[in-house]
Amino acid sequence: MSHPFAVLLAAFFFGVSATPVFAQSQTAEVPARAQLAEATTQPVRRQETTAEFARVVEQVDEFAEEYGAESVLLVVDLDNTLLAMNQDLGSDQWFTWQEALQNSDQAHPELVASDFGGLLEIQGILFALSRMHPPEPGLPDLVEDLVTRKITTVVLTSRGKEFRDAAERELKRNKYNISPSTLEIHEKRGVFSPYSAEHPGKHGLSAEIIDDLGSPRRVTYSEGIYMTAGQHKGYMLKTLLARSTRASANQPFAHFKAIVFVDDHQKHVDRMQEAFAGDSIDLATFRYSREDGNVEKFNKSTKHHVIRDWDLLNGFIKTVLVK
Ligand SMILES: [Mg+2]
Description:
Blueprint: H1 5-14, H2 36-39, E1 45-50, H3 53-67, E2 72-76, E3 84-85, H4 92-104, H5 116-129, E4 132-133, H6 139-148, E5 152-157, H7 164-173, E6 191-192, H8 207-213, E7 219-222, E8 225-227, H9 233-242, E9 258-263, H10 266-275, E10 282-288, H11 292-300, H12 304-320
Parallel strand pairs: 1-10, 2-5, 2-9, 5-8, 9-10
Antiparallel strand pairs: 3-4, 6-7, 7-8
Helix pairs in contact: 9-10
Bound molecules: magnesium ion (MG).
Magnesium ion binds next to loops.
């Protein structure tokens, strides 16, 4: 651990907080005498918000220095983290708005579809037609640098498997290539059910957690891109790690000693912290806020522009494409 024993002694005698590397939103408590030895082995739990991906790189470097590059796992979200939509129609904030409208009023005149399946179908059309860009121009280079240094990297997205082609195409077009340094798993086919109530414990999740999560939806993992269909990202990562070629019953997190997770949604950051709360692996999570301004601008807008854009596009589709 990065804190020397002297700091712990100071904590004990002078009441200085010395719980190892708990930062910001974590409340560090002064360890009692009986807990002092235990405190030295407590895992890192760090939560930050940043608009600079360089801050994530710094954290990866810090863990890599302590444990070695091969023991650090970087997990990065896709939408509004690695890539943002070039226009509002079809963006993450557009989808969130449509989903909320559906939940409040299924007959709302601004809805593009009356049910969730219909919304996903339209989202698929928009993913297929749209281009995306990195929120920070230098982001692909920062990721490439980590991949070159053999930091195991996984893209973890809430998108479902049906949107894989569009995701891979835009990642490639924007010069992201994580496949040389990603996690290898046992699943051969790439498409699998992440957990099963009949086999609790087999894929890293207890019967209690599986019971809480309910029925699984199928996911895909290939080229380092893990498409989890809106399921709990923390537990989805755990079941992926349990499938790693280097994981075992005694080592459900394979050889990893630290995880760095980046996502624009606080919900997913919270879920990642929740899933690993009782585990000995170090975890640093970053809520990536680079696109916050664009999201807020869209949320405050009249939405007239996206309603008009969809009407235009839908009109062309209906006119040109034969059903
Ligand atoms: Mg996202």
